[in-house]
């Protein structure tokens, strides 16, 4: 091993540890490592930033826009609601719902699919007395499985495809991955509907638990005539920065003031509604002129009115709120929303709301304005998992929805029959969507997840450093020395497991980018078809089932389903083994 190889290896190990312990956002960690390689002269700027112009990465950017345009008008959601309502049994409902969802995830980005259908499934389950936890992990898993069918099913497939093109090799065709993806999906669905269903817990969702114990979250105080701060603002009255409590609403006769602003004036007879650590209410009770209403009949549903709603949001990996307390992030002023409670690992965090330091996967129960969901549904800070109201212009939305679906199908067919490359077909579809005003340029910009693109492009540069210094070749030879005596099946299994472990610890695209150079070196040494290794790495990088942090769809359903970390291990480990066995077997038969 040379000094350069050793330096790159140390940098990559440090990067893994930083990602594992969530020191910063994943895209910033990987980008920082890339910058170090440039500053030390290990990579030229051209080599380091070549990934930013990679065709696979640019195709992913276009895919975000195409998927967003198709899902914007809710045509899939409307169809699925009608389709699901026709079923009477739980297993029948799973079949009717998850088969179409898995097929749609083969052609659309699975993250917005899960964000869209999570609140729909929760509401459907609640209406029928079914625990949402029986449906939400399967929702994430079937979209992951469906994504393995086509080139555009996941960003990982496009990343591997783009890297192959960069190496001067042929990439994947649109349905080449289906050879492995279809058996994986079919057997995976059978497992989820049978053994997996039995292993899933029967949990209530976060909001249901909160509503059941409303009195632990809400306290009501009456402003008496002798309150010294009457006719003063909330801030002047000292009710803005309370220890562990948050003033969420003022009820004044028939009028309801929410969210409460610092400039709101306190009047005699006002009913002040507080949330937070209700056990700390004693501090307020000592104030003259405030009377605790011990027999309040208010619950969380009573806080909702025409201007205020309760919203659940899951903190994302890329959130600017990470590693800060809620108070430090100035959440209330930034989003015009109050945090009622924070849920982590199926438990409410019982500390002062403002002091809670947020982590990926935390579920926030928010009291917000009526337009919050629409405004922040594409935010990088969190995934909003509450339903949007039905839009007024339903007929216009329906016609635009069907048109966008026709454009998507046309795009897929043009690629399938080799009329256009994937990149050109996507580019053409985006142009049509913008020209026909299916999506505006501003909306298109919002759909593109730039943090994901930065992560992928930076990982390309790290992969280039591995290849240039010979580290990829050195690691490939090390794996071959161990695996050669055991045969090609063992080598493929090693590659799959290593890629899968990387995916669970960091992210799927980064795992694929780091493993592909090693896989190509191994294919070259063994004089076998490189496509077999590329397919193995693409599937292994997508097949994240064992932890909630390895894949963002797992993270989205983590809190709303009331899951614990062990639930993913219990349900996901057998599925992960099934997918590995099918992948290795099929790749060995078809390509070797």
Automatic annotation (TrEMBL):
Instruction: Describe its membrane topology.
Output: Multi-pass membrane protein
Compartment(s) of residence: Membrane
Q: Which Gene3D superfamilies match?
A: Regulator of K+ conductance, C-terminal domain
Q: Where is the RCK C-terminal domain?
A: 206-290, 298-382
Which InterPro entries did the record assign?
Cit_transptr-like_dom, DASS-Related_Transporters, Na/sul_symport_CS, RCK_C, RCK_C_sf
Pfam family for this entry, one: TrkA_C
Any keyword Transferase? no
What's in the keyword line of the UniProt record?
A: Membrane, Repeat, Transmembrane, Transmembrane helix, Transport
What are the TM regions of this chain, as residue ranges? 6-21, 28-45, 57-76, 97-115, 135-160, 172-193, 403-436, 448-466, 486-518, 530-551, 571-591
- Its predominant location is membrane
This chain's protein is named SLC13 family permease
Give the lineage: Bacteria, Bacillati, Bacillota, Bacilli, Bacillales
């Amino acid at each position: 091993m040379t000094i350069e190889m050793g330096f790159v290896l140390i940098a990559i190990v440090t990067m893994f540890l930083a990602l594992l312990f969530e020191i910063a956002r994943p895209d910033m960690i990987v980008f920082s490592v890339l910058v170090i390689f440039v500053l030390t002269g290990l990579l030229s700027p051209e080599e380091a930033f070549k990934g930013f112009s990679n065709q696979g990465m640019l195709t992913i950017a276009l895919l975000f826009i195409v998927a967003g345009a198709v899902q914007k008008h809710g045509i899939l959601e409307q169809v699925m609601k009608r389709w699901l309502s026709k079923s009477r049994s739980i297993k029948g409902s799973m079949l009717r719902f998850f088969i179409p969802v898995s097929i749609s995830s083969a052609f659309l980005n699975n993250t917005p699919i899960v964000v869209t259908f999570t609140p729909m499934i929760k509401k459907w389950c609640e209406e029928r007395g079914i625990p949402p936890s029986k449906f939400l992990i399967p929702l994430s898993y079937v979209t992951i499985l469906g994504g393995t069918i086509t080139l555009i099913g996941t960003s990982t497939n496009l990343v591997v495809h783009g890297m192959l093109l960069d190496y001067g090799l042929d990439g994947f065709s649109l349905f080449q991955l289906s050879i492995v993806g279809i058996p994986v999906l079919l057997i995976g669905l059978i497992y989820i509907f049978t053994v997996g269903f039995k292993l899933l817990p029967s949990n209530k969702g976060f909001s249901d638990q909160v509503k059941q114990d409303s009195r632990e979250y809400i306290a009501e105080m009456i402003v008496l005539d002798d309150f010294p701060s009457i006719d003063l603002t909330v801030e002047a009255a000292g009710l803005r920065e309370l220890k562990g409590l948050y003033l969420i609403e003022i009820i004044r006769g028939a009028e309801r003031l929410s969210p409460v602003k610092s400039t709101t004036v306190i009047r005699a007879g006002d009913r002040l509604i507080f949330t937070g650590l209700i056990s700390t209410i004693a501090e307020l009770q000592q104030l003259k002129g405030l009377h605790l209403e011990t027999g309040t009949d208010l619950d969380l549903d009573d806080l909702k009115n025409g201007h205020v709603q309760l919203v659940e949001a899951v903190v994302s990996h890329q959130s600017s709120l990470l590693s800060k307390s809620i108070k430090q992030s100035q959440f209330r002023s930034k989003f015009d929303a109050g945090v009622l409670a924070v849920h982590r690992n199926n438990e409410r965090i019982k500390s002062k709301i403002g002091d809670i330091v947020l982590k990926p996967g935390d579920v926030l129960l928010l009291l917000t304005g009526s337009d919050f969901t629409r405004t922040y549904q594409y935010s990088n800070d969190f995934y909003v998992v509450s339903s949007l109201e039905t839009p007024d212009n339903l007929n216009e939305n329906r016609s635009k929805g069907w048109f966008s679906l026709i454009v998507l199908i046309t795009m897929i067919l043009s690629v399938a029959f080799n009329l256009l490359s994937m990149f050109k077909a996507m580019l053409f579809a985006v142009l049509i969507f913008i020209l026909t005003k299916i999506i505006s340029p501003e909306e298109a910009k919002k759909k593109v997840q730039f943090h994901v693109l930065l992560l992928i492009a930076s990982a390309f540069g790290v992969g280039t450093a591995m290849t240039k210094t010979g580290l990829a070749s050195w690691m490939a030879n090390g794996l071959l020395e161990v695996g050669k005596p055991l045969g090609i099946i063992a080598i493929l299994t090693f590659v799959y497991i290593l890629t899968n472990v990387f995916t669970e610890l960091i992210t799927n695209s980064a795992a694929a980018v780091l493993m592909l150079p090693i896989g190509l070196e191994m294919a070259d040494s063994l004089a076998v078809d490189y496509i077999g290794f590329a397919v193995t790495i693409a599937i292994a990088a997508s097949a994240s089932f064992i932890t909630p942090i390895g894949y963002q769809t797992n993270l989205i359903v983590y809190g709303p389903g009331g899951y614990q970390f062990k639930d993913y291990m219990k349900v996901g480990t057998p599925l992960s083994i099934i997918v590995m066995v099918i992948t290795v077997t099929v790749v060995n038969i078809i390509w070797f």
